[in-house]
TrEMBL record:
Annotated protein name in UniProt: NADH-quinone oxidoreductase subunit F
SMART domains per UniProt: NADH_4Fe-4S
GO molecular function: 4 iron, 4 sulfur cluster binding; FMN binding; metal ion binding; NAD binding; NADH dehydrogenase (ubiquinone) activity; quinone binding
Source lineage: Bacteria, Pseudomonadati, Bacteroidota, Cytophagia, Cytophagales
Keywords: 4Fe-4S, Flavoprotein, FMN, Iron, Iron-sulfur, Metal-binding, NAD, Quinone, Translocase
Organism: Larkinella arboricola
Length: 446
């Protein structure tokens, strides 16, 4: 069994309550940080750990903290991004539902490190029952003296607020989240200025993912160097993976970064392999916004070495032969999957969720949805495939926020690796539109 940091006590009965969490060593990291460390020392331990943002971007968290502006007389804020609307990703939801105090403890430590006296947890609007779970955990922590005025007699004050989200995928983008938190429409902001300089209420703000913040208590208790020793290279520590699709054991798994992708898919410790009687066709490794890879490329690098569950290994080869770890939304497809239909489904989602602020995204996502619908339902022509590639190129890199890229990459990669399947839909429309019809050409199945 691999190292467990966040899910170590997941099976302890009553672990969602303060009393049980405390008995398992909970809040000792808060005591250590507030009583024996300065805020700068906490930041330094997080920097030593090498932990990278677990929301998708993978930017070093300690470095992000160090960018926070500290003007005199201006409040600073920490905002936890718990919006988690990426299709295929549900690990933050799982963590908050089952281990709310892991997040609350991490919020206290992180807020102290950043000099924030009021912090926010912005939760996906559809998860109101999770909001209630977190509010109960906050009340328990406050009753125990870990929140409020003069925490543990140290003179540090912290108020923690849970805010239901605006019910939109775009609110997962950090500046759109801040706009929504301020009560406005969740449109992304132009950058610069960045949130570290002008964020929530135009004050210096750090926005971090649930999983990122939750790691801080272990890092403070055990040291940044101990965390950095887990994993491999610049992919330090553990990572929560949301595994779904055509596997025997879907669920949330905590892995040490560096596990071979093949082992993660086929080991009984994790996914348990492809469902009986079927074979691996493709994988979306980091949530719907990352490039899809066929079976041979997700398991092996171009040089024949095994591909690993790390930021670097998954992206090896760039977008030609690689993908991204992203938020860890690991979606597995077997040979019964229609790549065209899957790509159209993703395109529908991104068209629907575009805020409409940027023309390339507003118009381009609509174009891609309509053209993919045309191909899927037997009305496409060969020029449509190149049209999709062209539209994707015109969207990528030309929008205020990454939603445009998130919409373009799945389409471009699906055509790059499964062009023959798109062509089959066009040349055999009567067959392709039959219920349950799937391309059975020369596929690299495993």
């Amino acid at each position: 069994m691999g190292k467990k940091i966040l899910l170590e006590h997941i099976n302890v009965p009553g672990i969602e309550t303060y009393d049980v969490y405390r008995k398992q060593g909970g809040y000792t990291a808060v005591e250590k940080a507030l009583k024996t460390m300065t805020p700068d020392e906490v930041v330094e331990e997080v920097k030593k750990s090498g932990v990278r943002g677990r929301g998708g971007a993978g930017f070093p968290m300690g470095m992000k903290w160090s960018f926070l502006a500290k003007p005199e007389g201006v409040p600073r804020y920490l905002v936890c991004n718990a919006d988690e609307s990426e299709p295929g990703t549900f690990k933050d939801h799982y963590l908050m539902k089952n281990l709310p105090h892991v997040l609350i403890e991490g919020m206290i430590i992180s807020s102290y490190a950043l000099g924030a006296n009021k912090s926010f947890i912005y939760v996906r609007g559809e998860l109101m029952y999770v909001v209630r779970i977190l509010e109960k955990a906050i009340a328990e922590a406050k009753a125990a003296g870990f929140l409020g005025k003069n925490i543990l007699g140290t003179g540090y004050d912290l108020e923690l607020v849970v805010q239901p989200g605006g019910g939109a995928y775009i609110c997962g983008e950090e500046t759109a989240l801040l706009e929504s938190l301020e009560g406005k429409r969740g449109n992304p902001r132009n950058k610069p200025p960045f949130p570290a300089v002008k964020g929530l209420y135009q004050s210096p703000t750090v926005v971090n993912n649930v999983e990122s913040i939750a790691t801080t208590s272990w890092i403070i208790n055990n040291g940044g160097e101990a965390y950095a020793a887990i994993g491999i290279g610049r992919s330090a520590g553990t990572k929560l993976i949301s595994a779904s699709g055509h596997i025997k054991k879907p669920g949330v798994y905590e892995i040490e970064l560096g596990v071979p992708v093949e082992e993660f898919i086929y080991s009984d410790e994790w996914c348990g392999g492809i469902r009986d009687g079927h074979h691996l066709k493709a994988v979306v490794a980091g949530g719907s916004s990352v490039p899809i890879l066929p079976a041979n490329l997700i398991l092996k690098l171009a040089n024949g070495d095994p591909r690993l569950m790390t930021y670097e290994s998954l992206s090896d080869g760039g977008f030609q032969t690689g993908t991204m770890l992203g938020s860890g939304g690991f979606i597995v497809f077997d040979e019964t999957s229609c790549i065209v239909r899957n790509t159209w489904n993703f395109a529908r989602f991104y068209h629907h969720e575009s805020c409409g602020q940027c023309s390339p995204c507003r118009e381009g996502t609509g174009w891609m949805e309509r053209v993919l619908h045309r191909i899927e339902y037997g009305h496409g022509n060969q020029h449509d495939i190149d049209l999709l590639v062209d539209v994707a190129k015109k969207i990528e890199g030309n929008t205020i926020c990454p939603l445009g890229d998130a919409a373009a990459w799945p389409v471009a990669s699906a055509i790059r690796h499964f062009r023959d399947e798109f062509e089959w839909h066009i040349t055999n429309p009567s067959e392709a539109t039959q219920p349950g019809a799937v391309f059975k050409g020369d596929m690299a199945l495993v």
